[in-house]
Amino acid sequence: MGLESKNIYNMQLLKELMEETRSFVKASYNVLVDGVYEGDVSFQLSLGFLQIANQSYLTAKNLCFEQGLETFEIQLFFESFNNYRFELKEYVVKRDDNPSWLSSRYDQFIEGSSRAITFISDYAQDYKSK
Question: Which domain of life is it from (predicted)?
Fold first, then answer.
């Protein structure tokens, strides 16, 4: 496998990990705000989903480090995840009933992850069109 093909493969793998992370972040947020679950149950479910998201995040971060895939867009994904994770922890620990800060960090993560995933898709598309 050539160097460029290897980069495309790694970028596609990174994209899949980011999408998985985003999916579980969405679940961690939704169980807190959708009103289906209340109190401790919603906190426990949210933290469970966050733990799964964190596993994908760590795998993605390791892949980036090992393969030298850092770009502004990809770093934005990691930073926005860290901010969301911190805010979720604060929300649960304080048993907060106002999710405005958490909602803001969630929106930033969704925007950052979308930007990173689009960047990777465009990168792969540019390679295919060569």
Answer: Bacteria
Q: Quote the domain boundaries for residue 116.
A: 3-128
Contact assessment for residue 33 and residue 99, using Cβ atoms and an 8 Å cutoff: yes
What's this model's pTM, rounded to 2 decimal places?
0.91
Instruction: Return the CATH number at 86.
Output: 1.20.120
Give the contacts of 69 (CB within 8 A, at least 6 positions apart). Answer: 7, 10, 11, 14, 63
Number of domains in the chain: 1
pLDDT in tens, the chain (130 residues): 454 777 888 999 999 999 999 999 999 999 999 988 888 999 999 999 999 999 999 999 999 999 988 889 999 999 999 999 999 999 999 988 888 999 999 999 999 999 999 999 998 777 666 6
Q: For residue 47, which of 101, 85, 4 has the smallest C-alpha distance? A: 85
Closest C-alpha among 107, 87, 104 to residue 96: 87
Q: Which of 51, 72, 60 is nearest to 15 (CA)?
A: 60
